[in-house]
Amino acid sequence: MESLFQTVNALFAFIAPVSDFLWDFPTNFKAYSQIPVLGQFSFAILLLVGVGIHFTIRTRFIQTMNVGKIVRIMLRRQPSKTGVSALASFMLGLAMRAGPGNIVGITGAISVGGPGALFWMWVAAFFGMATAFMESTLAQLFKEKKHDEFVGGLPFYGRRILGDKRIVGTFLSIVFIVYALFNVPPQTFNVFTAIGTIADTVAGTHLARQSTVYYVIAVALIAACAFIIMGGIRRVTAYTDVLVPIKATLFCVMSLVIILINLPLIPYFFHEVIVGAFAPHALFGGAIGTALAQGVKRGLMSNEAGQGTITMAAAIADNDHPCEQGFVQSLGVFFDTMVICTMTGFIVVMAHVWTGTVDGQAWESVRASKITVYLASVETLVPVSVAQVIKIVMCVCYGLFAFTTLLGMISFAEISANFISRSRGFIMGIRVVGSLVFVPFGALTVLAGLELPNLWALSDLMNIVMVLLNVPILLIGQRLVYRALAHYRSTRGGPFVSERIGVRTEYWTAVRGVATHKEEVRERVES
Fold it and tell me: What family does this belong to (predicted)?
């Protein structure tokens, strides 16, 4: 078995160099890298931030929209029995956004770029909210009906915007399915990391990966994933509606408790973040560009604005106007970065762990494992008497972050696969491959004591590929979103027909408007 895994790892040996090249281009060229500040930024980061600023200006700072209004949209009674509610779509999107990257990614950004990276993460998220609005509104515009559900997202709006050629949508769908499914094993590994750490803490000793505990974890995880995924999108959203609020609330409450325990350190936190953003410590390179690059890169990869991944969740919602889901998913970026990532940043920065030592251990020996740095930071900030309990709770949060992301990946692959074929057999095949092939594969690598870095690097490669595919499509189709937004503002969210903005879509038609009105009248009479 181990030789098989090693063969797989060797097969993907070319992935890491390709991924690093694309993410770093053109900073990997000496002439460019020597340009002050700008030389720290890759094309991918400049592209994501640039379009975020562009969309912010063109939408007249859409991210400043009244939060109360967005919350009312999410809490509004679902207008029909078709699709899922705006709130369920928000939760499914947050299941993906609020993943392990919110802990290890942010810890890594601070480890490399210093506390100032958090400031630039906030800046990136602010502009990323506009990008999320654009892609989510397009997903709503071009969503399609499948029985009593909706399907849509990048492959669907990509096809319509790029000449209405089916081969375009098929290509985008295949790329996304590969992206999503190859992200499943790393998330499986993260679940094991979380539960294994809890088991080690409770047992008071390090448990071998071949121990009975790890086999029990493997069986339970595979069974849980198969049960939830095989039930389809509605069953997945039923569970994410519960698990996402639990993980977010638990994480935020525990983080707030830690922050309150260390209240005198809050001025220190803001000093390090603000000063570090513009005058970083020499320990982290001593250049603004280092903090800026780390903050922007990790922030955008955490909230996923511009990757087209959250468009699957945006498309399945039943909204009264396509812009509504744009507002909802934009708020998801805010909550993910400004709240959850900031909570992580508070703990990591205030603990001083990033300054060089952890209980006498050399900094470099722990920095390789970002979850080790984070948990060491937690233990540093709380009383010894409760340190183990809080560590366990934070590991529970980390495990839930990974588990809901895992569910989201497989579900989004299924939604995307609907572009290729909507036959029950094909869709069931995607569910089986995701939950009964890729999840067990991830579990087996853990049991074999392997981490397969070359295979895991594939997810990093696919992240940048998704950005390079999605952003140009957003730029080409942006005029439709501006027209839809103008309609929303002029009518205050009144009845929407796509022909009014110069495009005919499958769902937002005049016929649909009449049918919806009749359905609403019938529901009022029956009630």
Answer: Belongs to the alanine or glycine:cation symporter (AGCS) (TC 2.A.25) family.
